[in-house]
Amino acid sequence: MFTAAEAERLIFTLVTSVQETEMLELMGAKHDLMARVLAAPVRSKLDFPHWDNSAMDGYAVRAADMKQLPVTLEIIEEIPAGKRPQKTVNSGQAARIFTGAMMPEGADTVVMQEETTCDGNEVKLLNRTEKRVEQKIEPGTFVRKRGSFSKVGDILLPAGRSLTPAEIALIAAAQQTQVRVYRRPKVAILSTGNELAQANEPLNPGQIVDSNQYALSALVAQTGAIPIPLGIVKDDREAVKAAIASALSQADMVISTGGVSVGDYDYVDDILAELGATLHIRSVAVKPGKPLTVATIDSANADSANADSAKDSANGSANGSVQSRQVYFGLPGNPASAMVGFWRFVAPAIAKLSGRLESDWGPTLVWAEATSELNAGGRRETYLWGQLQAGKDGYQFGRAAGSHSSGNLVNLANTSGLGIVPQGETSIAIGQRVRVLAIR
User: Model confidence over 189-222: pLDDT tens digits?
Assistant: First the structure.
């Protein structure tokens, strides 16, 4: 078995980032831009700030006039935000100015209005404390200088940055109405098992709802990729083979659940080999989620394997281009195992596939104080789900109450973190530090 860290490193070597790009309108596609990944750096066409401006409501003055306080200055004009100053501030003069307003010529400092009194066209700069008299007023106080944030030609956002509202706002402020992004990767999802039923179907004895299809589709969408849910495949060898071949023809990555253990109906690994795939991982030393298949297959093999199905080939071509080499993840069928496997291994792989910066590939791991005892068998790295919260002195993590069975979805709901008990350890006591994979 691979350790979790070994499996992660290997997976990153197998995944190739998408290369196809598209231009999107910033306003027309504002909702579609969320979580999209920049395919080219965004460079500044402007200085930020665009001009010297005030960081406070107050008075624009010359620092040289503030060597001795209090002092009274003549107010020569008022400058609201958006108005170009009309006059030059000379010695003994001041301009009433508001936050964000352009600094007038001659002025190099802003005095907050709280440190002044105004009488008609005069303003008195106050001597509020003895310390204030001794303090030298430096030129530039409360002035945001032109280009101090960024200059023309600087890179505002690098290629590989995933877009959030803050990045979208910056692109708009830079007066760029279009942005080049990588296409969204397509991820096919299928579930195997005779015991599975759709959520809207009555359950026969022995059946369960295929919750994995819903969970994994939502998780894939959360990463910014496009989920392609392909539904349930019965435990029939030829049906599973046809479903996998069809999935490979449509998507950059395929995720299946079930069929990767050692049971009589676990066909996935053998079928992948028949389709020309290379199997790299078949199990990992983690709990839950020990059975994990990771394979790669190039598009030539996938097309050959799917050539006997004209319908499947047509479906593939209708969905546009896919990666020349696809990565296949076979996750366990138990819901908790499937989701833990996604959070730990698949989500980072999709991050690389999407073209994100390398620093954004891995899972978000933080240290927290354990607020409940965390127990494990010690043979495998164990993931216990629960609540990750910000405490007074840092993060805190508490294990979800109830059974941590890999088939228990009830206490998996509302999970915000996975507490990790390292391989070789059997417990983490209350108050000790625990590494937590943050998932929300």
Answer: 999 999 999 999 999 999 999 999 999 999 999 9
Helix (H) or strand (E) holding 159: none
Residue range 86-138, pLDDT digits in tens: 999 999 999 999 999 999 999 999 999 999 999 999 999 986 554 444 455 68
Q: How far apart are CA 193 and CA 200, in angstroms?
A: 17
Name residue, tokens 């010359």. 62
Q: What length is written for the chain?
A: 440
pTM: 0.87
Residues 268, 271: Cα–Cα separation, whole Å: 5
- The full DSSP string for 212-230 is HHHHHHHHHHHHT-EEEEE
Q: Are 420 and 435 in contact (CB under 8 A)?
A: yes
Q: Which amino acid is at 143?
A: V
- Identify the sign of the CA torsion 140, 143, 146, 151: positive
What 3-state class would DSSP assign to 42? Answer: strand
Give the relative orientation of helices 310-318 and 237-250 as an angle to the nearest 10 degrees: 30
- Between the CA atoms of 15, 39, 437 and 423, what dihedral angle is there, to the nearest 10 degrees? 30
